[in-house]
Amino acid sequence: MDPYSKRKKELPERPPESTRPSPFPDEVLELVLGLLKSNKDRSSVSLVCKDWYNAESWSRTHVFIGNCYSVSPEIVARRFPKIRSVTLKGKPRFSDFNLVPRNWGADIQSWLVVFASKYPFLEELRLKRMTVTDESLEFLALNFPNFKALSLLSCDGFSTDGLAAIATHCKNLTELDIQENGIDDKSGNWLGCLPENFSSLEVLNFANLNSDVNFDALERLVSRCKSLKVLKVNKNISLEQLQRLLVCTPQLTELGTGSISQELTERQYTELENTFKHCKNLDTLSGLWEVMTPYLPVLYPACTNLTFLNLSYAALQGLELANLLRHCPQLRRLWVLDTVEDKGLEAVGSNCPLLEELRVFPADPFDEEIVHGVTEAGFVAVSYGCRRLHYVLYFCRQMTNAAVATIVQNCPNFTHFRLCIMNPGQPDYMTNEPMDEAFGAVVKTCSKLQRLSVSGLLTDLTFEYVGRYAKNLETLSVAFAGTSDWGMQCVLGGCTKLRKLEIRDCPFGNAALLSGLEKYESMRSLWMSSCNVTMNGCRLLAREMPRLNVEVMKEEGSDDSQADKVYVYRSVAGPRRDAPPSVLTLSGI
Amino acid sequence: MEGVVAYENDLNLKATELRLGLPGTERNQEQAVSCARNNKRPLPETGDQNGGAKAKSDAPNTPPAPKAHTVGWPPIRSYRKNSLQQPKQTAAESSVMYVKVSMDGAPYLRKIDLKVYQGYPELLKALENMFKFTIGEYSEREGYKGSEYAPTYEDKDGDWMLVGDVPWEMFMSSCKRLRIMKGSEARGLGCGV
């Protein structure tokens, strides 16, 4: 029997049938609304009237919470009684770059405790930037008998022991996705904790782990799990081992290889080539750690239907990339290291007409003497060849206003434009002018722009442009830029759809902070660090806007009056009570 | 935060100062002081050619000078940073291990192969010969006493460490580059701190 239907009768909150004659019984309305998948649509629907609000609440099975402190688990459970899948995001994004103190918060445990009582049949949990301890993972494994899918991205606080607990107790596990986390890799045989008859796995991603896994256990697991669609192994899996795995999994759609650096005999090479020939269903390929160039061609047969190629851990040269790309006619998304240089990007332009997303990461971000990497020329070359490009993340050491103007002229459909000129405050290297006109061109031309990251030498003019033209902008990241409060005021005043604003090392002060008073409740959050905001400014903000949480993180040895790091976010749960001593919660009371 | 307070104080002076440089060029001075990293940071051109008037009105436009190794910049996830550095270290199998060596005040850098040396004494002697200077006596408590130079290295985490504190093997696997610090900076690092 559906456990939820029983609880429905017991819950006092369920309102009586509306007295106004309704065209549909509640159950029918719920069925209809249950077909809605988009959370945006569901939010709209819930605003129509009380009946629709209730029907939507009762039919929602997945909830997305973009800031774990904006709401409490009790409030969530009260509104949505039938949740089976939860996505939670915790720390501010700048925690990825070590700007947030270690014990800041976003611990999943308090959520799990409430879920254990309110959603015992929870099936999926997807966490980003949360703190997850081994105890929490064990709690999760033991308290949710139907639990199926766990995804941890950029989380911290757990070790392979926690993974062992999940493997041991989650009998219905279909997905285990561990990505880019601060994991305490104690090695140990966590993979071997999966029972011998266990065969329901569809997604397994342990590319993050540096220790060895028990290969025999892995091989047996993979051959048992006929529904396995996604397999991403870590760099300790050799080519030979990979080959044995692939023989069992021709149905894979996403593959993350181990390292491609083992010496192969000719027979091994041929075998591997044949195995890859049978991987016709692959749409995603990643991994390729420590790749040895001569072996790259072994992958070619598997690339025919690839739409996403992630080479961001493979230090390829331009020519190697060019050769590989010739075999990837369907490519939509490409991530590379800047070792491919401009030549490699020219090859992208020539070989990937369907490309929609490009990310170029720096291989050596901290070495300023390096004259390699990519330049504006590479980006321009891509823009000429890939007219459908709409998402870019580009790390470079030089850029010009003219180049960016050309790029957006070629590709006016950018939704995400993230340009990182790595030397802070660097001007257009040919004209020596600020990069204002570059970003001006971006916002003027790309009317669909949702996300923008700016860099280089920028005056308030950039922000005037952003405020005036970027009417669809939702996320803005700013570092080492701007001239005065006016810049930030333009953004807050002009970008009507702004949801997330993160700023570091800019000359914006209290006037700028307070100009957004009315705006912050319509945003998810604001981050300002190493700017000119003072404690008094923050106190004023907290006083004027009691439904905002205003948190200040103090640095050791800093001036008492300076608000070193400020994090402001709307919340219906009130100020949080789990902040560490280094985080001051400013209350409006 | 110190940098910000200094910025606020500087603001008054700079507003009245007559300059010809372009926006961002004030940073040259601040970088010379705070840039502990190396002598060759690519600086924006101090263009005197054009935009003089523009420069004056933009004079307050000085983003706080990024110190050597600004925290969290460039914005790359720690996980990715660490993953990229590892391949170089697992070149333990390879027969050479070249690292750059810079010396404060020297016009260009040198490169040495760490694998050539059996331990610290050999390495330090080689550095002394290469750059024509003397390093003092090493002690755990006081670092290098008796000279105005201190040999330092940048480790995997991007921190600057004093050469000699950790076992040689550990040093070999975590050393990315060397720098011979001189003068007051060196004193701050090694001696009696």
UniProtKB/TrEMBL annotation, chain A:
Domain F-box, residue spans: 24-65
Keyword Transmembrane helix listed: no
Keywords: Auxin signaling pathway
Region (Disordered): 1-24
Highest rank taxon of the organism: Eukaryota
Protein source organism: Hevea brasiliensis
Keyword tRNA processing assigned: no
UniProt protein name: F-box domain-containing protein
Upper lineage: Eukaryota, Viridiplantae, Streptophyta, Embryophyta, Tracheophyta
Automatic annotation (TrEMBL), chain B:
Organism: Hevea brasiliensis
InterPro entries recorded: AUX/IAA_dom (IPR033389), AUX_IAA (IPR003311), PB1-like (IPR053793)
Keyword Nucleus: yes
Biological role: Aux/IAA proteins are short-lived transcriptional factors that function as repressors of early auxin response genes at low auxin concentrations. Repression is thought to result from the interaction with auxin response factors (ARFs), proteins that bind to the auxin-responsive promoter element (AuxRE). Formation of heterodimers with ARF proteins may alter their ability to modulate early auxin response genes expression.
One Pfam family of this chain: AUX_IAA
Cellular compartment(s): Nucleus
Classification via PANTHER family: AUXIN-RESPONSIVE PROTEIN IAA17, AUXIN-RESPONSIVE PROTEIN IAA4
Assembly information from the UniProt record: Homodimers and heterodimers.
Family per similarity comment: Belongs to the Aux/IAA family.
Domain spans labelled PB1: 96-183
Gene3D superfamilies per record: Phosphatidylinositol 3-kinase Catalytic Subunit, Chain A, domain 1
Protein name: Auxin-responsive protein
The entry's keywords: Auxin signaling pathway, Nucleus, Repressor, Transcription, Transcription regulation
Main location: nucleus
Region entry Disordered, spans: 20-75
Keyword Nucleus: yes
